[in-house]
């Protein structure tokens, strides 16, 4: 089944360019377009896309607010934020709003396709290490805020969702939040990568998070990590 994509950008030429690239792929289908955030929400509700390519700066409702509302609506669509620069505070704000990754508008077609396929498969289009670096660069300039219902208030530490994690799942959470990949986590915990994947899946499910990038954002929002200082509660595992 083809990956259903919704294109959201206020520039018609940009949407046309993306559509041409994606339309040439047998496993990807562009199901709709929108020129602003408000329209993107209407289109997403009507078309049920798997992935939304979301521009940030648009008239009316911007891409960050649209992403926040889309995630809050319970939509299964994964959002990739379109940015002008690779590492900027708008990209981080998009991740904090619930996006699964970001992509520079001048990215190569192969990078665009890889990002779409990654988030459609339930992964993220950027690594947790990049997210952690963005926290260090920009988080102190952005308001903190929770990622969804049932999560602890910003700075409140361990909430009911975190308390539901087993000891191994909590260790896995700490290492994910530090930006480690599955292989590195497996080495730290002296377990197989298959076991790590099982723990990661449990962490995401129990915390209601969309992917491992959101683990990093969740840790920051809930006061479990401070930019440049690592986790505040890491059970002696180090900062990674």
Summarize the structure in words.
There is one protein chain. Helices cover 47% and strands 13% of the residues. The chain has 240 residues and is an alpha/beta fold. Helix 8 (167-177) crosses helix 11. The model is unreliable at 143-157 and 231-240 (pLDDT under 50).
Using brief descriptors, characterize the structure shown.
240 residues; alpha/beta; Rossmann fold; five-stranded parallel β-sheet; two-stranded antiparallel ribbon; 7 strands; disordered C terminus
Largest β-sheet summary: 5 strands, parallel
The CATH superfamily label of the largest domain reads Response regulator
Question: What fraction of residues sit in β-strands?
Answer: 5-15%
Contiguous helical run count: 11
Question: What is the CATH topology assignment of the largest domain?
Answer: Rossmann fold
Total DSSP E strands: 7
């Amino acid at each position: 089944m083809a990956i259903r994509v919704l294109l959201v950008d206020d520039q018609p030429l940009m949407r046309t360019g993306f559509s041409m690239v994606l339309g040439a792929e047998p496993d990807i289908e562009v199901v709709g377009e929108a020129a602003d955030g408000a329209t993107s929400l209407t289109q997403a509700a009507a078309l049920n896309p798997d992935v939304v390519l979301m521009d940030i700066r648009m008239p009316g409702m911007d891409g960050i607010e649209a992403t926040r509302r889309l995630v809050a609506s319970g939509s299964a669509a994964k959002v990739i934020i379109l940015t002008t620069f690779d590492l900027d505070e708008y990209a981080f704000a998009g991740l904090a709003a619930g996006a699964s990754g970001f992509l520079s508008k001048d990215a190569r077609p192969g990078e665009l396709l890889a990002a779409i396929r990654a988030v459609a498969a339930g992964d993220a289009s950027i690594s947790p290490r990049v997210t952690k670096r963005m926290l260090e660069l920009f988080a102190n300039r952005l308001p903190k805020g929770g990622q969804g219902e049932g999560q602890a208030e910003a700075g409140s530490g361990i909430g009911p969702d975190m308390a539901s994690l087993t000891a191994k799942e909590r260790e896995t959470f700490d290492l994910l939040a530090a930006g480690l990949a599955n292989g590195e986590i497996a080495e730290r915990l002296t377990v197989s990568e298959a076991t790590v994947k099982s723990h990661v899946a449990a962490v995401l499910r129990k915390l209601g998070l969309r992917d491992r990038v959101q683990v990093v954002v969740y840790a920051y929002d809930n006061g479990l990590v401070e930019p440049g200082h690592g986790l505040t509660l890491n059970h002696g595992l180090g900062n990674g």
